[in-house]
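User: Please fill in residues for this 372-position structure.
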């Protein structure tokens, strides 16, 4: 009986059918993005042999956050969030089909990969606040921590499965075959969202007024809310100085650890394995210590990054990245949970939009790392 209660507590959000469908669509979409990153990085490395040009994949993929992220929260508050998410997933499917065509015709260049990364990054920046706000629409404040943990779990499973599947597909059916799989995943995710009935929270305050005025109100609100401002600052630090290392894993796998694409994909998946374990634990507990978990997870991830720096052995590097992912889970879950819990309902989208803007600091770290 105790086991059954624990099981119900861990996966409580899944009792909501709308949330189950949203989670499944997110899992497919996030897995596609992680596969795409592995495929594009390997393709650029094969075309150019340049670690700096590999880093530019991340730069082009994350830089749209700096511009689109500023307005994405406003769109999530004003427009139908489900429709917005359906449009973004459909656009990603079309982008993947175009890349498949370029690969099949043999005319793709490294500039095409940068353009694909930028389009996908722009779309993800639009989707992020809309999807997280939909979670609140479905479950409310009482179930938000469990729901955010499970939502982060879908991202972390994709970080584990996406690169692993991508690496295997490169080895078996080439980058072209891998991109066909990506297009199919995006298409299924879009169909799930379009066919799901999700209640919308109507924010009349957010529905009226000029765009720039509403964006300014969101910025002013976040600057005056100390918990959200702290989340934003920590997000900037982690995305600029910690997470860019993941962009360099294919280079490290090939040039330092001396392994092929399959083991490269497994190494990229290690972070996701640890993160899945972490999110399951967070989803299983009832806690009021959101800030402590947020900060503690961030510190664990940073310490593991320092240890990874000194590793020259694949067998040592793999468990270090698993532990890094475990710490990342505390950061990722509480990043959105804290923001949603302390912000007003009519500010959810714009507050999450500022978080997207903070995530957009990652390209600066990627450029620095690629140069180093």
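Assistant: Residues filled in for all 372 positions:
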């Amino acid at each position: 009986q105790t086991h059954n209660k624990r099981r119900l507590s861990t996966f409580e959000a899944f009792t909501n059918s709308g949330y189950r469908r949203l989670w499944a669509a997110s899992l497919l979409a996030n897995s596609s993005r992680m596969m795409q990153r592995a495929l594009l990085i390997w393709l650029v490395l094969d075309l150019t042999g340049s670690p700096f040009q590999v880093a530019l994949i991340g730069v082009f993929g994350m830089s749209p956050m700096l511009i689109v992220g500023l307005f994405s929260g406003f769109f999530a508050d004003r427009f139908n969030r489900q429709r917005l998410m359906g449009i973004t997933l459909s656009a990603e499917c079309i982008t993947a089909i175009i890349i498949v065509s370029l690969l099949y015709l043999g005319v793709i260049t490294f500039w095409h990969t940068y353009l694909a990364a930028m389009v996908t990054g722009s779309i993800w920046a639009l989707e992020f606040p809309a999807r997280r706000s939909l979670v609140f629409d479905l479950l409310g404040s009482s179930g938000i921590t469990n729901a955010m943990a499970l939502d982060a779990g879908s991202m972390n499973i994709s970080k584990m499965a996406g690169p692993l599947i991508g690496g295997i597909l490169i080895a078996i059916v080439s980058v072209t075959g891998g991109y066909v799989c990506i297009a199919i995943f995006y298409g299924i995710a879009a169909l799930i969202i379009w066919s799901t009935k999700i209640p919308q929270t109507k924010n009349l305050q957010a529905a009226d007024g000029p765009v720039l005025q509403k964006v300014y109100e969101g910025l002013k609100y976040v600057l005056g809310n100390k918990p959200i401002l702290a989340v934003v600052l920590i997000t900037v630090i982690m995305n600029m100085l910690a997470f860019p290392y993941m962009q360099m894993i294919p280079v490290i796998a090939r040039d330092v650890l001396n392994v092929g694409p399959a083991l490269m994909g497994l190494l990229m998946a290690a972070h996701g394995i640890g993160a899945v374990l972490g999110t399951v634990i967070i989803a299983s507990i009832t806690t009021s210590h959101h800030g402590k978990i947020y900060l503690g997870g961030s510190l664990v991830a940073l310490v593991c990054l320092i240890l990874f720096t000194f590793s020259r052995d694949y067998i040592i590097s793999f468990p270090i990245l698993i532990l890094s992912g475990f710490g990342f889970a505390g950061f990722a879950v509480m990043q959105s949970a804290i923001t949603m819990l302390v912000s007003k309902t009519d500010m959810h989208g714009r507050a999450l939009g500022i978080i997207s803007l903070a995530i957009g600091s990652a390209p600066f770290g990627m450029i620095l790392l690629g140069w180093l």
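For context: Residues 1-8 have pLDDT under 50 and may be disordered.
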